[in-house]
Amino acid sequence: MKLFQKKQDLPADKAERVPPGQYLTEKWPVLHYGTVPRFDPKTWDFRVFGAVENELKLDWNGFQKLDQTLVQADMHCVTTWSRLDQRWEGIPFSKIVELAKPKPDAKFVIAHSEYGFTANTPIEFCMRDDCLIALRANGEPLTPEHGYPVRLVVPRLYAWKSAKWLRGIEFSAVDKPGFWERNGYNNRGDPWKEERYWGDGD
Protein backbone atom coordinates (compact mmCIF):
# COMPACT_ATOMS: atom_id res chain seq x y z
CA MET A 1 0.00 0.00 0.00
CA LYS A 2 1.18 3.50 -0.77
CA LEU A 3 2.00 5.78 2.16
CA PHE A 4 -1.16 7.76 1.42
CA GLN A 5 -4.09 6.84 -0.81
CA LYS A 6 -6.62 9.30 -2.18
CA LYS A 7 -10.26 8.63 -1.42
CA GLN A 8 -11.12 8.29 -5.12
CA ASP A 9 -8.52 5.52 -5.50
CA LEU A 10 -9.99 3.36 -2.73
CA PRO A 11 -12.50 0.48 -2.97
CA ALA A 12 -16.03 1.69 -2.28
CA ASP A 13 -16.29 0.03 1.14
CA LYS A 14 -13.20 1.90 2.35
CA ALA A 15 -13.89 5.15 0.53
CA GLU A 16 -17.21 5.60 2.31
CA ARG A 17 -15.39 5.55 5.67
CA VAL A 18 -12.95 8.31 4.74
CA PRO A 19 -14.25 11.87 5.33
CA PRO A 20 -13.94 14.57 2.66
CA GLY A 21 -10.46 15.96 2.12
CA GLN A 22 -8.74 12.99 3.82
CA TYR A 23 -6.14 10.48 2.60
CA LEU A 24 -5.92 6.89 3.83
CA THR A 25 -2.73 5.64 5.47
CA GLU A 26 -1.68 2.39 7.15
CA LYS A 27 1.06 4.20 9.05
CA TRP A 28 0.38 6.13 12.24
CA PRO A 29 2.04 9.54 11.89
CA VAL A 30 3.37 11.23 15.01
CA LEU A 31 2.22 14.82 15.52
CA HIS A 32 2.38 16.94 18.65
CA TYR A 33 3.55 20.28 19.98
CA GLY A 34 6.45 20.44 22.42
CA THR A 35 8.47 17.65 24.03
CA VAL A 36 7.27 14.21 25.06
CA PRO A 37 6.73 14.19 28.85
CA ARG A 38 8.35 11.61 31.09
CA PHE A 39 6.12 9.20 33.00
CA ASP A 40 6.79 8.41 36.66
CA PRO A 41 4.30 5.84 38.01
CA LYS A 42 5.15 6.86 41.58
CA THR A 43 3.94 10.44 41.14
CA TRP A 44 1.39 10.11 38.31
CA ASP A 45 -2.24 10.66 39.22
CA PHE A 46 -5.53 11.14 37.40
CA ARG A 47 -8.24 13.59 38.47
CA VAL A 48 -11.92 13.86 37.60
CA PHE A 49 -13.44 17.12 38.78
CA GLY A 50 -15.73 20.04 38.00
CA ALA A 51 -19.50 19.69 37.67
CA VAL A 52 -19.69 16.22 39.25
CA GLU A 53 -21.21 14.68 42.36
CA ASN A 54 -18.01 12.75 43.18
CA GLU A 55 -14.57 14.13 42.42
CA LEU A 56 -11.94 11.44 41.89
CA LYS A 57 -8.19 11.20 42.26
CA LEU A 58 -6.52 7.93 41.32
CA ASP A 59 -2.88 6.87 41.41
CA TRP A 60 -1.39 4.72 38.65
CA ASN A 61 -2.22 1.42 40.35
CA GLY A 62 -5.77 2.46 41.08
CA PHE A 63 -6.33 3.74 37.57
CA GLN A 64 -5.22 0.47 35.99
CA LYS A 65 -7.70 -1.47 38.13
CA LEU A 66 -10.72 0.23 36.55
CA ASP A 67 -12.82 -1.87 34.18
CA GLN A 68 -11.44 -1.92 30.67
CA THR A 69 -12.83 -2.45 27.18
CA LEU A 70 -11.71 -2.73 23.56
CA VAL A 71 -12.87 -0.36 20.83
CA GLN A 72 -12.14 -0.56 17.10
CA ALA A 73 -12.63 2.77 15.39
CA ASP A 74 -11.35 4.85 12.48
CA MET A 75 -9.03 7.76 13.23
CA HIS A 76 -8.99 11.06 11.34
CA CYS A 77 -6.34 13.76 11.72
CA VAL A 78 -6.90 17.41 10.86
CA THR A 79 -3.68 17.26 8.80
CA THR A 80 -5.72 15.13 6.32
CA TRP A 81 -4.66 11.54 7.05
CA SER A 82 -7.12 8.83 8.10
CA ARG A 83 -6.35 5.40 9.55
CA LEU A 84 -9.03 2.71 9.52
CA ASP A 85 -9.74 0.06 12.17
CA GLN A 86 -7.50 1.41 14.90
CA ARG A 87 -7.82 -0.84 17.97
CA TRP A 88 -7.87 0.80 21.39
CA GLU A 89 -7.94 -0.77 24.86
CA GLY A 90 -8.62 1.14 28.04
CA ILE A 91 -11.19 2.52 30.45
CA PRO A 92 -14.55 3.24 28.83
CA PHE A 93 -15.58 6.85 29.32
CA SER A 94 -18.88 5.52 30.68
CA LYS A 95 -16.94 4.17 33.68
CA ILE A 96 -15.71 7.68 34.49
CA VAL A 97 -19.29 8.90 34.22
CA GLU A 98 -20.50 6.11 36.50
CA LEU A 99 -17.94 6.92 39.20
CA ALA A 100 -18.00 10.72 39.03
CA LYS A 101 -21.72 11.26 38.31
CA PRO A 102 -21.69 14.47 36.24
CA LYS A 103 -24.32 17.04 37.20
CA PRO A 104 -27.16 17.80 34.76
CA ASP A 105 -25.55 21.08 33.71
CA ALA A 106 -22.29 19.39 32.64
CA LYS A 107 -22.40 19.99 28.89
CA PHE A 108 -18.69 19.87 28.08
CA VAL A 109 -15.71 17.63 28.78
CA ILE A 110 -12.34 19.36 29.19
CA ALA A 111 -9.36 17.04 28.81
CA HIS A 112 -6.37 18.12 30.92
CA SER A 113 -2.95 16.87 29.80
CA GLU A 114 0.69 17.31 30.73
CA TYR A 115 2.20 20.82 30.46
CA GLY A 116 -1.21 22.37 31.03
CA PHE A 117 -2.61 21.44 27.61
CA THR A 118 -6.39 21.14 27.38
CA ALA A 119 -8.93 20.14 24.73
CA ASN A 120 -12.67 20.75 24.93
CA THR A 121 -15.38 18.41 23.64
CA PRO A 122 -19.19 18.55 23.78
CA ILE A 123 -20.19 15.86 26.25
CA GLU A 124 -22.39 13.99 23.78
CA PHE A 125 -19.32 12.84 21.82
CA CYS A 126 -17.78 11.39 24.98
CA MET A 127 -20.96 9.60 26.02
CA ARG A 128 -20.87 7.31 22.99
CA ASP A 129 -19.74 3.70 23.29
CA ASP A 130 -16.57 4.28 21.25
CA CYS A 131 -15.08 6.90 23.60
CA LEU A 132 -12.49 5.67 26.08
CA ILE A 133 -9.29 6.52 27.92
CA ALA A 134 -6.76 4.34 26.14
CA LEU A 135 -3.76 2.56 27.59
CA ARG A 136 -3.04 0.35 24.56
CA ALA A 137 -3.25 0.68 20.78
CA ASN A 138 -3.24 -2.16 18.28
CA GLY A 139 -2.35 -4.73 20.92
CA GLU A 140 0.60 -2.84 22.41
CA PRO A 141 1.01 -0.24 25.17
CA LEU A 142 0.87 3.30 23.87
CA THR A 143 4.27 4.61 22.87
CA PRO A 144 5.48 7.86 24.48
CA GLU A 145 5.02 9.68 21.16
CA HIS A 146 1.39 8.56 20.95
CA GLY A 147 0.46 9.57 24.49
CA TYR A 148 1.83 6.97 26.94
CA PRO A 149 0.66 6.17 29.53
CA VAL A 150 -2.92 7.20 28.67
CA ARG A 151 -4.77 9.32 26.14
CA LEU A 152 -8.38 10.24 25.57
CA VAL A 153 -9.91 8.74 22.43
CA VAL A 154 -12.90 10.48 20.81
CA PRO A 155 -13.16 8.75 17.41
CA ARG A 156 -16.05 10.86 16.06
CA LEU A 157 -13.90 14.02 16.07
CA TYR A 158 -10.51 14.96 14.60
CA ALA A 159 -7.66 13.33 16.48
CA TRP A 160 -6.43 16.46 18.28
CA LYS A 161 -9.51 16.06 20.51
CA SER A 162 -8.09 12.67 21.55
CA ALA A 163 -5.68 14.38 23.93
CA LYS A 164 -2.34 12.66 24.61
CA TRP A 165 -0.66 12.34 28.04
CA LEU A 166 -3.99 12.74 29.78
CA ARG A 167 -3.96 13.65 33.48
CA GLY A 168 -7.55 14.62 34.16
CA ILE A 169 -11.12 15.07 33.02
CA GLU A 170 -13.13 18.15 33.92
CA PHE A 171 -16.89 18.22 33.45
CA SER A 172 -18.03 21.77 32.81
CA ALA A 173 -21.27 23.70 32.38
CA VAL A 174 -19.47 26.16 30.09
CA ASP A 175 -17.27 25.58 27.07
CA LYS A 176 -13.54 26.18 27.58
CA PRO A 177 -11.61 26.14 24.30
CA GLY A 178 -8.26 24.39 24.66
CA PHE A 179 -4.77 25.01 23.28
CA TRP A 180 -5.45 24.09 19.65
CA GLU A 181 -8.90 25.65 19.66
CA ARG A 182 -7.42 28.96 20.84
CA ASN A 183 -4.80 28.78 18.12
CA GLY A 184 -6.87 28.42 14.99
CA TYR A 185 -8.48 24.99 15.11
CA ASN A 186 -12.25 24.57 14.95
CA ASN A 187 -13.99 24.47 18.33
CA ARG A 188 -15.84 21.21 17.59
CA GLY A 189 -13.78 19.38 14.94
CA ASP A 190 -16.21 17.10 13.10
CA PRO A 191 -14.25 15.46 10.23
CA TRP A 192 -17.38 14.71 8.21
CA LYS A 193 -18.16 18.44 8.14
CA GLU A 194 -14.49 19.36 7.59
CA GLU A 195 -14.49 21.49 10.74
CA ARG A 196 -10.73 22.01 10.70
CA TYR A 197 -10.16 25.66 11.46
CA TRP A 198 -11.92 28.76 12.77
CA GLY A 199 -15.00 29.50 10.71
CA ASP A 200 -15.28 26.01 9.15
CA GLY A 201 -18.82 24.70 9.40
CA ASP A 202 -20.26 27.97 10.71
Mean pLDDT: 94
Number of domains: 1
Number of helices: 5
Return residue spans where pLDDT drops below 50 for at least 5 consecutive residues: none
Shape category:
globular
Tell me the helix content.
10-25%
Return the CATH class. Answer: Alpha Beta
Could you state the CATH homologous superfamily?
A: Oxidoreductase, molybdopterin-binding domain
Main pleated-sheet profile: 7 strands, mixed
What is the CA-atom radius of gyration, in angstroms?
17 Å
Cα end-to-end separation: 36 Å
CATH architectural category: Alpha-Beta Complex
- Residues in β-strands, percent: 25-35%
Q: What's the SSE pattern? A: EHEEEHEEHEEHEEEEH
Q: How is the CATH topology named?
A: Sulfite Oxidase, Chain A, domain 2
Secondary structure class reads mainly beta
Strands, total number = 12
What can you see in these coordinates?
This protein has one domain: Sulfite Oxidase, Chain A, domain 2. It contains five helices and twelve strands. The protein has helices at residues 12-15, 60-64, 93-100, 123-126, 179-182; strands at residues 5-6, 23-24, 45-50, 56-59, 69-76, 81-92, 108-113, 118-122, 132-137, 140-141, 151-153, 166-172. Strands 1, 2, 5, 6, 9, 10 and 11 form a seven-stranded mixed beta sheet that branches. Strands 4-3-12-7-8 form a five-stranded mixed beta sheet. Strand 5 (69-76) and strand 6 form a beta hairpin.
Topology of this protein?
Blueprint: E1 5-6, H1 12-15, E2 23-24, E3 45-50, E4 56-59, H2 60-64, E5 69-76, E6 81-92, H3 93-100, E7 108-113, E8 118-122, H4 123-126, E9 132-137, E10 140-141, E11 151-153, E12 166-172, H5 179-182
Parallel strand pairs: 2-6, 3-12
Antiparallel strand pairs: 1-2, 3-4, 5-6, 6-9, 7-8, 7-12, 9-10, 9-11
